[in-house]
Amino acid sequence: MKKEAYKKELLLRSVQRRNGSDNYYKEVMKIQSWLTLFSIWNPNSGTATAIDGDFGPATEKAVKNFQQVHQMEENGYVDQHTFNVLTLNLKEAFEKPLFEDTVRGLLIEAANNHLMNYPFELEIRKESNSGPWVRSYMDGNEGNLWYWCMGFVQTIIDQVWSHLGKDFRTMMPLTYSCDTVGNTGLQKGFFIAIKPSGRIRI
């Protein structure tokens, strides 16, 4: 894979806990983001929490609730093992082997792998298009201006092309612009523009 920003989302710098001396603001926000993401598809889990970088009693309770759901020791702190469980969906989406034998089949398989793992964005500090999934698709970028649709599409193409031993950048540039991809495809002959009823479709 050429788009490997997701790997940073799987790692925890150090054990994070309530009032911990080794707590790091961004690491706590990552944990809070994953706890909140988990609550979206498990609304009764009690894991939703503010994403503010402060590992206080509410975050500790959310961690304990997450640990309870997974039948883990309910100690309220997050080490790499607990974080691995928190981020398992992301790892599955990006690293699950592909088995289909056609390009079309591989693209559908890869896309389904992501969709089945709930790739949701978050709103963090009034910024939409935020969170670990967005950063993974957008090479570390996030926020209101970072629409992640093309980042998602290129990630799927990257996975398939890498599976086939190819570099997707020979087909299109690494970009977050649908227009850039469309224009490049037209220039290289990958796309064909037709003009029915006065409208151009790609």
UniProtKB/TrEMBL annotation:
Residues 27-86 form the Peptidoglycan binding-like domain. Signal peptide: none annotated. SUPFAM superfamilies: PGBD-like. It comes from the Bacteria. InterPro entries: Peptidoglycan-bd-like (IPR002477), PGBD-like_sf (IPR036365), PGBDSf (IPR036366). This is Peptidoglycan-binding protein.
